[in-house]
Amino acid sequence: MTVVVFGSINMDLVARSPRLPAPGETLTGHSFETVPGGKGANQAVAVARLNVPTQMVGRVGNDTFGQDLLTALQQSGVGCDRVWVDPDTHSGIAAIAVDDASENTIIIVPGANGRVDASDVERLVSALSGARVLMLQLEVPLPMVVAAAKAAKAAGVTVVFDPAPAPTHLPAELYPLIDIITPNQVETSQLVGFPVETLDDAARAAAVLQQRGVGTVITKLGKQGAVCMTADDTFQIPTFPVTAVDTVAAGDAFNGGLAAGLAAGLSLQQATVQASAVAALSVTKAGAQPSLPTRAALQDFLAARSVSLPHFPV
């Protein structure tokens, strides 16, 4: 029931201030920290902490950040045998500003992530044997994302695609390779070309994406929850009310919870409930990977809310 993640590995450089600066403005912050991140790595950690076997495929640079990033992945239980240490560049970084209202802005410098190429896809192919789910995002070169999706399709592995950062467009050939796409409101709007603010908007957008070839569309609507549309069914999963501290990894947490549930044999609806719970837990703590919950924390969270899911294998 392995989940394979093909994507970015970043070091997050997080500065916190009372509010976010306006263009050209300099603010004094009140804290700074380096936190392992990157959408690919975050999603891999989210899955591994739920006790689902996880393999990461990607690159880090030949620098201190790279070694720290690999150590962090391994300590969370992520298999890193297929992570390449690129000797010719630095590790990817994300410069993140977070205000006291838990809103954030992010600037990404790809580094090694931007050099992911066909050799990384070759390493991915060997990891797909026996895997159930491949997770993809958009912080590595898009042609390699397409190649990875093709490899997963050929291997009969479910492709869960997070179209983030928000794309201006995606190649037509990618859509039919996607089993499940999980955009938020901004990403959905970018993909379909009209604002997505309501449940009706989400349903209309999902129909557009399915016409392009996507199997299942899960649209994340913030406080309105998640709307899932398959070929045969539509359902809404409400959010779990919590007090937010830091929303930076909420999307990655959602995707990790979803993929872990699917790999463990949960139904799509059950896996989406789990995804919503993992995302809710993640926003109650600061940082990207440090905020991602363990299986025990998830079970306690669900039990406290009288939510029951089928037995989750170790």
What features would you describe in this structure?
- It is a single chain.
- This protein has one domain (2-9, 39-90, 113-304): UDP-N-acetylmuramoyl-L-alanine:D-glutamate ligase, CATH 3.40.1190.
- With 314 residues, the chain is of the alpha/beta class.
- Strand 4 (54-61), helix 2 and strand 5 (78-86) form a beta-alpha-beta unit.
- The strands form 2 sheets. Strands 5-4-1-8-9-10-11-12-13 form a 9-stranded mixed beta sheet, sandwiched between helices. The chain has a 4-stranded mixed beta sheet with strand order 3-2-6-7.
- The protein has helices at 39-48, 64-75, 118-127, 142-155, 185-192, 199-211, 250-263, 268-282, 295-304, and strands at residues 2-6, 10-16, 31-37, 54-61, 78-86, 92-98, 104-109, 131-136, 158-161, 180-181, 216-220, 226-229, 234-237.
- 34% of the residues lie in helices and 24% in strands.
- Helix 3 (118-127) runs parallel beside helix 4 and helix 5 (185-192) crosses helix 6.
- It is built from 9 helices and 13 strands.
